[in-house]
Write a structure and sequence with these properties.
single chain; 176 residues; mainly alpha; 9 helices; 0% strand; globular
Length: 176
Amino acid sequence: MSTDTRTDTGTGKAAESGEYAPEHTPRLRWAQAAPEVYKAMVRLDAAAKQGLDPALVELVRLRASTLNRCALCLDMHTKDALAAGESVQRIVQLGAWRESKHFYTPKELAAIELTEAVTVLTDGFVPDEVYERAAQHFEEAELSQLIATIAVINAWNRFGVSTRAVPGHYRPGQHK
């Protein structure tokens, strides 16, 4: 049993006693300020993930959110992945997937690698070999959905990071 009294919302005894840093205030509550954009993003998100394995979707979302340092999305998608039965070990190892390949299927590895390439775009393009590895594991329609899912989580990350969205309040499945 853990002796940590902190809760997901940061309002436990530890938070009250000042053991943890205070929760920051978001810069902007963009979903309320631009509700039509938010609703369009929700619809796009739902459309993008259609036909994809939900566990794979959460791995992709977690990897992109880690790279983009989106605390809100890391909180949300970790909780959703755990609620869907994903293992703590696979979630933790995702940040070091190249050294932990044995935790993932070849298809998941191709999706994770593609997620990194699309998210970072360091060279200004997705390398042919990364795309080809993904194309070996996904049919065209599924690959299109995967790329859309990667693009959408990157958009969500940018909203979350730029507005300093506050993690810790999400409950699994809350936005489904």
